[in-house]
Amino acid sequence: MGLDKIIEYQSIDIKLYALENEFQRSDELKNLKILQNNYKEKTEELSRMMKETQELFSSFEKSGLRISEVDGLEEDLSRDINSINDLDELDLYDKSLLKYDESISSIERELNRTAKRFTEIKIEVQKLIEQRLEINKLYVQHKKYHDDKINDVKMKAAPIMRELQVLRESVDPKLLSKYEELRAARKMPAYVEYNDGNCSGCGMHIFIEVNAKLNNKGDTAECPECRRIVYKL
Fold it and tell me: What top-level class would CATH report for the domain 2-169?
């Protein structure tokens, strides 16, 4: 009697399960997930842009330190050339000049590179903001389609759920618990016929493993392959 009730419960619940699957495969849900993923990607890109901007600011700060170093060289070079007394001092002076020129050129290149990247980031950020705004508009539109689909599924599911609620009071709690465990694992149907030594759920031949447990009508055993419950008619 207990098996008959869980089989009856399953036959009704399969209709609800089919509705759930229909919704999970629906274009409404797929489109909404695509938009959510796109929005997440754009947000992550914006975060990367912000991080790079901070790195560029740090680069500017380093350039400031290098400018201070150049100021130090400039002080050395500001001495009167007439005060140079020998070739060694002249050689040191020439090297300082060369270092000063190289430092200025390097700082200039770095500042130009950083300024150029700031401009590129500004353009990229504006583009990302526009893309996110567009995604938001589409999301609002597709969220309505999604919600309409949910309401449609709920309307179809309501009488099925009421029928299940009434029936579950008469179902063996242990059988129901096992059923719900298998349903959550998407092993549906959960209770299947034992057919000529085979599991009707996964189709595997399980005669050796379970046949000794299925002597009488209504006997049950767990399929060793798919973990469904097989029963003897």
Answer: mainly alpha
Closest CA to 210 of 202, 177, 179: 202
Q: Are 6 and 176 in contact (CB under 8 A)?
A: yes
Tokens, residue 162:
């009421």
Q: Is pTM, for the whole model, over 0.90?
A: no
Sign of CA dihedral 153, 159, 163, 165: positive
Taking a C-beta distance cutoff of 8 angstroms, is the pair 9, 179 a contact? yes
pLDDT tens sequence across 98-108: 666 666 677 77
Residue of 119, 105, 136, 109 lying closest to 42 (CA atoms) = 136
Distance CA 103, CA 70 (A): 7
Q: Write down the domain spans for the chain.
A: 2-169, 190-231
| Angle at 37 (CA atoms; ends 33, 38), nearest 5 degrees | 115
Q: Is the peptide bond before 173 cis (omega within 30 degrees of 0)?
A: no
